[in-house]
Amino acid sequence: MVAYLPSDGPDPVADCDVAVPRTGSGTALEAGPDVPDAAEIARIDPLDPLVIRRDFPIFERDFGGRTVAYLDSAATSLKPRVVVDAVNDYNTRHTANVHRGIYALGEEATALYEGARERVARFIGARDRHEIVFVRNATEAINLVAATWGRRNIGAGDTIVLTELEHHSNLVPWQMLIQEKDADLEFVPIDDEGRLVQESYDALLRTHPKLVAFTHVSNGIGTINPVREMVDRAHRAGALVLVDGAQAVPHMPVSVAELDCDFYAFSGHKALGPTGSGALWARRELLEAMPPYMGGGEMIREVHLRSTTYNDVPWKFEAGTPDIAAAIGLGAAVEYLVGLGMDRVRGHERLLTAYALDALAHGVPGVTLHGPRAGDDRAGVVSFNLPGVHPHDVATLLDREAVAIRAGHHCTQPLHERLGEAATARASFGVYSTTDDIDRLVAGLRKVQALFS
Amino acid sequence: MDDLYRAEILEHYRHPHNFGTLEHPDVVQEGSNPLCGDRLTLMLDVDEQGVVDEVAFTGRGCAISQASASMLTDRIRGLPLAEVAKIGRQDVLDELGIEISPARLKCALLSVDTLRRALEDRVAWQAETEEEPA
Ligand SMILES: Cc1ncc(COP(=O)(O)O)c(C=O)c1O
Question: What number is the ipTM of this complex?
């Protein structure tokens, strides 16, 4: 079976003067002899994206005689038909509120909703489905922890350790908290290849922070952090650990039990699920000790005019009617991913990342590539700059070729300050991404360069 | 792809007019587009008769924001403020003369919005102000 679309564009590497590309640090990126070419990838890739693409209705849409080369999965993923169907099914056949109706539809809706919770729990290696709180997205999950655990446990003079890699959603909630509590933030710096400086982390741990919060995978430059080791060291220093899993859960096997962290947040919409779906996982004893987030229906056990007792976890944190359809859709999404196998998903994206870094380095003269080189600690997020062309122009011009990339700071402004770029262009991959998408990216960039030369 | 950015825009981007600073400007205004990190500093000298005597800008940004600043500063040099007051957002888009997607409007309009703020106290703007152009 042919796994990859053949490239019908011009060979991006042919007849071009190969300038020495730079990584963020200005070091030369090695043309690893072990970087597979498209044919080799098609042979060894454990996933067959051509088959997978049939599950994603968006590839049936025509973009001027071709499909979209969707390279913005880090912003949100495309949605497979099973997810769309699950949402429709709830809205057309099982519509009812959850945990209320004493009738068949209400029980069906509740079973679907709680079934999705069970699937999400298993998907991320949680021991107990009661440890999964459904939220709208990773942002809400982190804000929930800051507003409940944070407000109760962080006091004047306490320290929270973050990193230079963080998405604004794992930075601003903590800034808000420490302003209120007169506490402090410290930041683990990154080195020139975009990895966290572990010695600095250890030094910060010696100040006995109350909490360490960092991203599993950088949405800015694709670094995969050594979560388990960092968690172990934080625990030895007496800190709890929150991991932002928004860019990890969709792309690699994740087990919160193995990571041994205390809080784990992710967005469903980046993991093939609908927008409005996401989850916070936390240890049950932490959830039980935390005060509620919002007040209202569903989160209560008994309400009197002047007092209320709260529901059990996780419902204590799910005030009001939740986005039932989105949660059910997320359940379908994780089931789909389980069917593919997360090891295979990671294998596929790892190959694509190596291919992309190589194709850009050799096909696009002068390109600056940010983040670690291809390997075990590099995910499918590739940010880059072209000399003399602003990323917004790059994205606008590529759009003409039906190549969709992101341009800007990707909600990581401090990281971009560290990189010394106001903005970068970013290509990011998903289960449906192919080497052909990357070939189209490289060919498009060559055209952009010709236009600006 | 080639028809999207006219040659004139690319030319303004490569060699922006009025790029630089003024020594003792009467007005300095900074503008930025937080979405994409574009920054612009606009400097103006206005003489006693209320004519824009000199104008310069610095900053960095995409081709669209740089070209629009280059064109706009050309346009207002030597113009009485009463005339500057008539310049609207749509005029700037018309002068760019290319298709601007909604996501890029902020780039295209950064220069005129910065100009409007720079002259807030001196000019009663006549054309539509902050609303999105039709
Ligand atoms: C690493 C990381 N954390 C958090 C978020 C926030 O996700 P959401 O906007 O779905 O809340 C993102 C999304 O871009 C992300 O990449």
Answer: 0.85
